């Protein structure tokens, strides 16, 4: 292996944030890319973003303190690599880029892997979980492993992802765990959300909340079963708010009717973050008992648990995938077997009947969210990786 002499990192030297999804697009990866960029800029770094076009991007981009280059012609899945490669090479050469942060391995990381040697730049790849939770064909898997082995550094969103990456035997590529962030000033516990109790008629109810795309692995069906069992035992004090949409919505509505709890369940649809934060404030417990599906579909992290924690709420999650990194069992919430409905029902009832304990757990949850998952903390740890990369000899 050839090594090149290390050179120091200069904050005035542009860093390229290479993101297929970027704000104003919605979604966890787009939000991660934007917030990381925004907070790295606050640390004094010169940043250039290379991302695909999105509705409303012109007005959005004009209000950002960093430059955003929008890629055209990358909407077609099987043909996007060619125009993305052109944009990537042009941007790196034009702006003398020495470090690229790829927000995901495909397509961004793979494009960087193809051209990093002739362009003499280094690249970092953030891994969000789909790399190890989705079944990949042999060619795609080989492309992924080649990208990871040529990267200067890999960032895993949690320990579950790191353990999965370690199974690929990536001896030459360092891996660091940096969780996905939350805006603890936006999601906070002191918002006046009483109007929601009036809206939902829940003044005397204990409100449970789930925020999720309505897929099987999110475990909403298990929560419905748990509420049914509680109601059969005389505990009818719960109102369950489900925020989100997805392929399982009709099945879940039918299930609620068949279980006789449709009046205690509200499907609120998709809400903006501004509306969502009030729901976190007003709920008594956030619950999402995620599970692994036979096809390998699994929860990579679960940022909603951290958003709820930032609002000082106790969370109940499934002991599956990356969620154990989001919940400290018995301190910030509870981890349960996603298929044990009786255990889930017991935890829901415990939260409802132990107000003083849940208040303390909520306070601990928020302190932990701020210290580990605030965007400022995420940016600081990412900065350390950038500096370590330039302290090491560059590999050929």
Summarize the helices and strands and which ones pair or pack.
Blueprint: E1 3-4, E2 15-19, H1 28-42, E3 47-52, H2 57-62, E4 67-71, H3 81-95, E5 99-102, H4 105-119, E6 122-127, H5 130-133, H6 138-150, E7 153-156, H7 159-166, E8 175-177, H8 194-200, E9 206-211, H9 220-232, E10 238-243, H10 249-258, E11 265-269, H11 273-282, E12 285-288, H12 303-310, E13 315-318, E14 333-336, H13 341-353, H14 355-373, H15 375-391, E15 394-395
Parallel strand pairs: 2-3, 2-5, 3-4, 5-6, 6-7, 7-8, 9-10, 9-12, 10-11, 12-13, 13-14
Antiparallel strand pairs: 1-15
Helix pairs in contact: 1-15, 3-4, 4-6, 9-13, 12-14, 14-15
Q: Can you identify the CATH class of the largest domain?
A: Alpha Beta
- CATH topology of the largest domain, which one? Rossmann fold
Could you state the CATH homologous superfamily of the largest domain? Glycogen Phosphorylase B
CATH architecture of the largest domain: 3-Layer(aba) Sandwich
Q: What structural class do helix, strand and pairing data support?
A: alpha/beta
Average the pLDDT over all residues and give the rounded result: 93
CA gyration radius, whole angstroms: 22 Å
Largest sheet: 7 strands, parallel
What is the count of DSSP helices, taking H or I runs of 4+ residues? 15
Net shape: elongated
Largest sheet: spatial strand order: 4-3-2-5-6-7-8
Overall number of strands? 15
Span of the ends, CA to CA: 6 Å
Structurally, the number of domains stands at 2
The SSE string, one letter per element, is EEHEHEHEHEHHEHEHEHEHEHEHEEHHHE
Strand content: 15-25%
Helix content: 40-55%
């Amino acid at each position: 292996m050839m090594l090149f002499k290390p050179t120091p990192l200069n904050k005035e030297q542009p860093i390229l944030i290479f993101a297929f999804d970027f704000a104003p697009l919605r979604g966890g990866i787009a939000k991660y890319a934007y917030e990381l960029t925004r907070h790295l800029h606050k640390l004094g770094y010169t940043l250039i973003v290379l991302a695909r076009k999105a509705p409303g991007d012109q007005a959005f981009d004009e209000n950002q303190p960093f430059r955003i280059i929008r890629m055209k012609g990358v909407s077609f899945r099987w043909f996007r690599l060619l125009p993305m490669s052109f944009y990537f090479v042009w941007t790196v050469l034009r702006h003398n880029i020495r470090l690229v942060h790829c927000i995901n391995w495909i397509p961004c990381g793979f494009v960087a892997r193809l051209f990093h040697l002739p362009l003499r730049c280094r690249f970092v790849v953030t891994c969000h979980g789909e790399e190890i939770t989705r079944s990949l064909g042999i060619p795609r898997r080989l492309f992924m492993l080649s990208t990871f082995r040529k990267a200067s550094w890999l960032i895993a969103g949690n320990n579950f992802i790191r353990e999965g990456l370690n199974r690929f035997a990536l001896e030459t590529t360092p891996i660091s765990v940096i969780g996905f962030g939350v805006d603890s000033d936006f999601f906070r516990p002191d918002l006046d959300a009483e109007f929601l109790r009036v809206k939902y008629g829940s003044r005397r109810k204990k409100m449970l909340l789930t925020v999720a795309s309505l897929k099987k692995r999110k475990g909403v069906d298990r929560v419905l079963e748990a509420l049914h069992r509680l109601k059969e035992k005389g505990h009818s004090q719960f109102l369950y708010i489900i925020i989100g949409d997805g392929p399982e919505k009709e099945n879940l509505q039918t299930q609620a009717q068949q279980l006789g709890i449709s009046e205690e369940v509200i499907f609120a649809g998709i809400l903006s973050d501004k509306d969502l934060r009030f729901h976190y404030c007003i709920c008594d417990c956030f619950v999402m008992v995620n599970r692994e599906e036979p096809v390998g579909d699994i929860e990579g992290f679960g940022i909603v648990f951290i958003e709820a924690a930032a609002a000082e709420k106790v969370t109940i999650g499934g002991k599956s995938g990356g969620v154990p990194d989001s919940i400290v069992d018995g301190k910030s919430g509870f981890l349960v077997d996603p298929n044990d409905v009786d255990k889930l029902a017991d935890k829901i009832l415990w939260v409802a009947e132990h107000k003083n304990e849940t208040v303390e757990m909520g306070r601990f949850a928020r302190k932990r969210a701020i210290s580990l998952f605030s965007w400022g903390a995420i940016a600081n740890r990412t900065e350390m990786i950038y500096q370590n990369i330039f302290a090491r000899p560059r590999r050929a």
